[in-house]
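Q: Structure for this?
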Amino acid sequence: MQTLESYIREKGKVYPGNILKVDSFLNHQIEPSVIRAMAKEIRRLFADCPVTKVLTIEASGIAIAILVAEEFGVPMLFAKKSHSANLSPDVYSTKVTSYTHGTVYDVRVAKDFLRADDHVLLVDDFLANGAALLGLADLVRQAGATLSGAAIAIEKGFQQGGQIVREAGIRLESLAIVDSMQDGNITFREQPHQS
Amino acid sequence: MQTLESYIREKGKVYPGNILKVDSFLNHQIEPSVIRAMAKEIRRLFADCPVTKVLTIEASGIAIAILVAEEFGVPMLFAKKSHSANLSPDVYSTKVTSYTHGTVYDVRVAKDFLRADDHVLLVDDFLANGAALLGLADLVRQAGATLSGAAIAIEKGFQQGGQIVREAGIRLESLAIVDSMQDGNITFREQPHQS
């Protein structure tokens, strides 16, 4: 998506270790106009899919997910992270390993809000190793709901998450795929079907 | 705000200990149409105020804040909670005591995104004892920015936060003020200036 790629080029900052910071418009300070354009593109890309619910994970996926949900006219649900071991019978829960922080945490949603007749679109800001997205997909599976697909703002194409998710048979649309960040020069993967 | 009060009456659940759960539409599953109506009402209530930035705190304030920011046509910034003691010189930080969880945590924003010439509207989903809101106000003060006011979805009028915030001279608009929840019957405070 050209709007997003332009923003990443202009406002993103590349740090050693393949770290891309986009906290001026995407995941700390957030520009509503950029997120709105992204939400409309996600709506367009999944126009042929039934979607009854948008599922994301706290915290930085929430801003995108609420606008995507508004575009589809459906509720948004955000999974909560927990480091507590206490599980309630009222929640679906799965474990996610954070490679960034070297920790394992639980991700939970209330069973009341994820039903077998739901068609669920996953939304998140970043896709790197895919652990968070696969955790969300597992919650959908536990609920017996249908996974419509996953929409991501920025995929790190040089990490394995995108490949794992696609090979798992999940329809994945990443609005920008960063294939490399050599010497601060960002190379995006060509995606001719996107606007 | 009548729309919100109706939702709270119909979909909120009252539990012993003055606990009000609104996780079917406000802070776990989120109904975009309700949040949009709230964002428009907040825009109307603060129409006479200059606002250049909307500031909230992760996670459940983000969905409201992004729509409020979109209504004002300004960026949204969400403060991050941290239990780590590591402070960077690039952030403003303040300590917030969570009475619910009996813990103290740091709340941080990058200095880059909160400037002395900003006029900041605080937005959050709940106001109880006021600790989170006063923490956000302290970040605004540290930045030398101007505090335009605070907009809250649901104020627990039987707790002290609202009084403390108003007595601190902060203009506060709560879209619903719950004055009591006796035996599951919710009483809202009259607010004739609201729609």
